[in-house]
Amino acid sequence: MPTPPAEIPRWATDSGATVTTPVSTKQDSGWVGTEKPPAGIFNWLGKWTYEWIAYARDAVSYLDTTLSALVTTVAGKLAADGSNNITGSLQFDSADAHDIGTHSVPARNVYVGTLLETSTLVVDNNGQVNGSLTVGGTIALADTSTATAPVHNTLTSRLSPKAIASISTDGAGGISLLDGGNIASVALSGTGGAKRILVTLATAMASTSYQVMPSYNGGVANKKANVNSASKTTTTFLITLEDTNGGGILGFDNNAAVVDLVVFGVQ
Question: C-alpha angle with apex 153: 141 to 107, nearest 5 degrees?
C-alpha cells in the first residue's frame, strides 16, 4: 500500500475564519477571466477540500484497524491424537456470506458435546492470519448409524458497509437526507434545544452489536457527533451532538451541521 503524505492541506478550520458558500451559479461556472477570488469563497474551497480529505483519511484508518482483526485465512486441522489443535486453511472474500463446505458425517462417527474455543492469531504484512485456534470442552462419540446429514459452515463478512448517509440540519429545526444507502428516514427527536438525529435503517441489522461511524462537519470547533449506544435497536439509532469542552449535549435543532456516517455489522 502506498505511503500517505505526512500532512494534509488544513485550511480555514478556526471558528472565526471567514467562509462564504458561493451561490449555485458560481459553483457551476467557477472563476472567469481575471476575476479575483473573494477571501470567503476561496476559504470555502480550501476548507471543504480539507474536510473531505480528513474524512477519507479517517475512514481508511478505521478500515485498516478493522482489517487487522479480520480472519481471512485460518490454519486448522482437528488432530486425531487428542491434542485438539486446528490446522489447515480457511479463506473467504469480500462478499457478505459464503458456504465454505458441505461435509457428510460418516455413520457411527459423530462427535457431540459443548465446545469452548480460544485463539492466538497474528496478521502478517500480506494480510494472512497465522497462529493457532484451540477447541476444548466435553466431546463424546455418539453411537449412531443414521448420521448422514451434511454439515455446513458459513462465514459472514462484517467489513462491508451496510448503510451510509449524509445528513444536514439547518439550525432552525429542519433536517434532510442529502445522500445515503439503506436509509429509510432521518428525523429530529427529543426535547427542544437538545434534539438528536433519529436514523431509521431500511433493512434491519441482525443484532444491536453493529457499529456506526459518524463524522461531524459543522465548521465549528469543539463539537462532535456521537452515537447513543444504549438507544440502538436493530433498525434505529440516535446521533447526539456533544460539546468536547465539557458543555454536555447540544441540540441539532439549533445547530447547523452536516453529519456523515457509515454502518458496519451483520444483517
Answer: 30
Contacts for 148 with CB less than 8 Å, ≥ 6 apart: 104, 105, 107
Q: Between 267 and 113, name the one with better pLDDT.
A: 267
Q: What string of DSSP letters covers 176-242?
A: EEEEEESEEEEEEESSTTS-EEEEEESS--SSTT-EEEEEE-SS-TTEEEEE-GGG--SSEEEEEEE
Read off the DSSP letter of residue 105: P
* pLDDT number for residue 254: 87
- Report residue 259 CA to chain centroid gap: 14
Q: What is the pLDDT of residues 49-71, one digit of tens each?
A: 999 998 998 888 888 787 776 64
Count of CB atoms situated within 10 Å of the CB of 192: 10
Q: What share of the chain is helix, strand, coil (3-state, %, to 5)?
A: 15, 40, 45
DSSP 72: S
Confidence band, pLDDT 50/70/90 cuts, at residue 249 = confident
Contact between 257 and 217 (Cβ < 8 Å): yes
What is the per-residue pLDDT across 102-143, written as a single tens digit (0 to 9) for each? 444 444 444 445 444 455 556 666 656 666 655 555 555 555
pTM here? 0.43
Instruction: Round to whole Å and give the CA distance between 222 and 215.
Output: 13
Instruction: Supply the Cα-derived Rg of the chain in whole angstroms.
Output: 26
The rounded distance, in Å, linking the Cα atoms of 218 and 231 is 24
Q: Residue 176: phi, psi to the nearest 5? A: -150, 150
Checking if the pLDDT of 153 tops 90, the result is no
